[in-house]
Specification:
Layout lengths: L26 H12 L2 E6 L2 E6 L2 H6 L6 E3 L24 H10 L5 H23 L5 E2 H18 L16 H13 L3 H4 L7 H24 L10 H7 L11 H31 L2 H15 L8 H4 L3 H13 L5 E6 L3 E3 L2 E3 L4 E5 H5 L2 H4 L9 H5 L23 H18 E5 L7 E4 L1 E4 L3 E6 L2
Parallel strand pairs: 2-8
Antiparallel strand pairs: 1-2, 3-5, 4-12, 5-8, 6-7, 9-12, 10-11
This protein binds protoporphyrin IX containing FE.
């Protein structure tokens, strides 16, 4: 029985549709909540536009095939086009610029390239550890994690440094971090506010244009300062400046390089920072898990994580399970959009060609049929018991699916495991017992207002 009428939330308004069904500041979390009362598949309508929301592993499995489905560009990804329309994340798969940039950049994420980024990641994290070691006040976890991952992306990817993180001024208020957060805040604004852009929203729009222009200038500076690679080990920017597309034999246009620099600066730091922040929050309440992580670090490094070598990071298997479990519970990307290439059937309903289907990862990753009745609990043991992330294809997809899944997956996992290893070995985490987790959505998910006191272990 295939029907086109999908269930939807209660209280649909004429013309406006389901705007009242979602908390406009927390759309991903409200969509997951709605599925508890409506079921794993339902529709939301905004004016004439229909969006299908899926929250279950089996449904997520159905939309995986790249021959029948493709990436769709819902808000806020669509709004990120303001940063440059040929950026890898926002460009259409048919856009020749996407294909060219993808082919040029892919070798920048092989094992060999990752080996080059490792010492840079170690340097940046060591600087942070030194600064934290001198600090007795509670730290702003999200702010500092943003600083670390942005600095790693800039140094490893573009041979550029915003700050030495050992300096007192390199804290949470680094202007470039705030500039990016402002742009992300603007890209995440609710549709109802977007409608006011032409009137009372004019000042905010103007400020955003200035922010975007400043970020574009920054990317241009990075390109100007890029020096040729003489060691035969190019970073991402040198690769883009010096390599031609292996298919067309053409170099990338400067504007395309600039769009990728901005894409990587934003996509390559915000998600990793969010994951690290969630992990530190969860671990601050689980000294038993931290203890096991430290035992593993002792076994692998002989008690000195500062010597952690590239090959040893992959051997920190238990810590990796902690990261897997963090991304299951809090998939920082929130979800992603797909659309069918032809009219099709999804969960017993008809979905028309080109219609948006949003895979809500909070719903998928907490599907009790797959993850059990304790799916809402943080328990790295579930990945220890069954390391396969494919209990059912589609059940665990924090990095997206298919051709357009995350190009930076290995980079992110290496940097997150390495950073946590250094932090957890150097400090005891003291949670603020009054803090209740509240999750902000600024394109990606992130704990709001998390502060934590650290005690040096040495
Ligand atoms: C795409 C998640 C870290 C660069 C994606 C997508 C997801 C994702 C879900 C697909 C988006 C969609 O379908 O619309 C994550 C998570 C990360 C992470 C959870 C960290 C925990 C990174 C890092 C980089 C990066 C560190 C860069 C070094 C990109 C790029 C794309 C992408 C360029 C677009 C790929 C394309 O379509 O060609 N990411 N990401 N990401 N990610 Fe990541």
């Amino acid at each position: 029985r295939v029907v086109s009428e999908l269930p939807g939330p209660w209280g649909r308004l004429p013309m406006l549709g389901d705007v009242l069904a979602l908390n406009p500041r927390k759309p991903v979390q409200s969509m997951a909540k709605l599925s508890e009362s409506i079921g794993p598949i339902y529709e939301l309508r905004f004016g004439p536009k229909r969006m299908v929301i899926i929250n279950g592993a089996e449904l997520a499995d159905t939309v995986q095939s790249d021959s029948q489905w493709e990436k769709a560009f819902g808000p806020p990804i669509r709004r990120l086009r303001m940063l440059g329309s040929s950026g890898l994340i926002v460009a259409s798969t048919n856009d020749p610029q996407w294909g060219a940039a993808h082919r040029v950049l892919m070798p920048g994420f092989t094992r060999e390239s990752m080996r080059l980024y490792h010492p840079v990641m170690t340097d940046v994290v060591s600087e942070l550890i030194r600064r934290w070691g001198r600090c007795s006040d509670p730290i702003d976890v999200a702010g500092d994690m943003n600083t670390v991952t942005l600095e790693i992306m800039a140094r490893a990817g573009f041979g550029y440094s915003f700050a030495n993180l050992d300096e007192p001024s390199a804290g949470t208020n680094m202007p470039v971090v705030n500039l990016m957060l402002d742009v992300l805040r603007y890209a995440s604004r609710p549709v109802s506010i977007e409608l006011l852009d032409a009137t009372i929203g004019r000042a905010a729009r103007r400020r955003n244009q200035l922010n975007v222009a400043e970020l574009q200038r920054l990317a241009e500076d990075m390109i100007d300062e890029c020096r040729p690679d003489v060691a035969g080990a190019p970073d991402l920017l040198q690769r883009m400046m010096e390599t031609s597309d292996p298919e067309t034999r053409q170099p990338l246009a400067r504007s395309v390089v600039r769009d990728q620099v901005l894409t990587f600066l934003i996509a390559g730091h915000e998600t990793s920072a969010g994951t690290l922040t969630f992990a530190l929050h969860l671990l601050s309440h689980r000294p038993d898990v931290v203890k096991r992580v430290r035992q593993e670090i002792d076994t692998i490094t002989g008690g000195d994580p500062t010597t952690l070598a590239y090959e040893q990071v992959a051997k920190l298997r238990y810590l990796r399970r902690v990261v897997d479990e963090t991304l299951r519970l809090w998939p920082v990307a929130g979800g992603f959009f797909r659309r069918p290439k032809q009219d099709t059937e999804l969960g017993g309903y008809t979905v028309r060609r080109g219609e948006w289907v949003y895979v809500n990862l909070i719903g998928v990753h907490r599907d009790k049929h797959i993850w059990g009745s304790d799916a809402d609990q943080f328990d790295p043991e579930r990945f220890v018991r069954d390391p396969s992330q494919e209990r059912q294809p589609g059940a665990y997809k924090p990095f997206g699916i298919g051709l357009r899944s995350c190009i930076g997956r290995q980079f992110a996992l290496h940097e997150i495991v390495l950073t946590l290893a250094h932090i957890l070995y150097a400090f005891d985490l003291e949670p603020d017992l009054k803090y209740r987790l509240a999750v902000d959505e600024l394109v990606t998910l992130k704990p709001a207002g998390l502060r934590m006191r650290l005690r040096s272990r040495s």
